[in-house]
Task: inverse folding
């Protein structure tokens, strides 16, 4: 059996456990297949067998046992990593745009996990990676979207993983993103405090909903660009996350009428000549208290080349 572990976050609270697992497994397994695992007591919620319809709560632990043949072997791959910080407990990498964080249906290789497994392979054939999240997500304590670049924390030990997972639940780490959004923002700084939940029409999307979980994004304008020629009016902003909901910045900026440039999901029909590089959203700053030493760690991930090139074009436009 392959054991997978999932720790339920606040944004998933109240979701049916079967729907939660389909979402977490990137739809690699259908709800009907998972139903057979529930019937065999191969899915446990806080160490107890439950029905597929059972709702989950923030902080819940789910253990899923998959037969060996149901899970492809996850192998280390020699993929270059941009390392921002590393010690015996932690690894912070600058994930490139387009890289999937962990293996899933249709993405069993070329992921960040494949690269990290190679980097953390020990001489005895084991890995210096936390095993809390199971074989699909060794060391993974939080995620960023495939098309979002930037700083991502990896835990090498179970002890570090537990401390950092708790810190993330308390929103303790400092997380700042750089984003290029459509239109000119008039205010120099403001806060978006709007609850976010699953879109009722499309479960793969998030939306501002009155019954959603509280989500707070602090926005600061860095630079404004007027429309020039075929270049769109846009604003470079810094977003500091007070909470960490799924797609939070993308949803909040779209809600206030300034979606992220190149966002294929939340920008609607807005298009620009800069769209070919995907969405302009980058996890620039990650700061946290070291789980073992208590030292304050601060990392900065440089903007990717395509983001820098877009800014160069906007700044140099006649």
Result:
């Amino acid at each position: 059996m392959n054991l997978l572990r999932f720790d339920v976050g606040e944004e998933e609270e109240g979701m049916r456990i079967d729907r939660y697992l389909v979402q977490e497994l990137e739809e690699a397994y259908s709800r009907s297949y998972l139903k057979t695992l529930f019937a065999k007591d191969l899915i446990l919620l806080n160490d107890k067998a439950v029905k597929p319809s059972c709702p989950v709560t923030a902080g819940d632990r789910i253990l899923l046992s998959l037969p060996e043949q149901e899970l492809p072997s996850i192998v280390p791959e020699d993929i270059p990593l941009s390392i921002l910080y590393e010690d015996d407990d932690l690894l912070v990498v600058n994930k490139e745009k387009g890289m999937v964080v962990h293996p899933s249906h249709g993405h069993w290789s070329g992921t960040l996990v494949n690269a990290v497994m190679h980097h953390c392979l020990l001489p005895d054939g084991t890995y210096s990676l936390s095993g809390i999240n199971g074989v699909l997500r060794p060391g993974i304590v939080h995620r960023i979207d495939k098309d979002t670049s930037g700083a991502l924390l990896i835990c090498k030990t179970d002890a570090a993983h537990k401390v950092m997972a708790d810190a993330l639940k308390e929103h303790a780490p400092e997380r700042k993103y750089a984003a290029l959004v459509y239109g000119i923002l008039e205010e120099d700084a403001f806060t978006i405090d709007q609850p976010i939940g699953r879109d009722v029409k499309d479960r793969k999307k998030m939306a501002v909903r009155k019954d959603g979980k509280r989500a707070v994004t602090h926005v600061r304008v860095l630079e404004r660009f007027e429309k020039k020629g075929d270049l769109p009016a846009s604003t470079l902003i810094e977003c500091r996350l007070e909470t960490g909901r799924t797609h939070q910045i993308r949803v909040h900026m779209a809600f206030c009428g300034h979606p992220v440039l190149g966002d294929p999901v939340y920008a609607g029909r807005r298009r620009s000549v800069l769209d070919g590089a995907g969405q302009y959203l980058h996890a620039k700053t990650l700061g946290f208290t070291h789980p073992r030493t208590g030292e304050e760690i601060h990392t900065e991930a440089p903007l990717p080349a395509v983001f820098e090139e877009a800014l160069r074009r906007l700044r140099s436009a006649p």
Q: What stands out?
A: The helical segments are 17-24, 31-39, 112-119, 158-169, 248-255, 305-316. The chain has a mean pLDDT of 92.
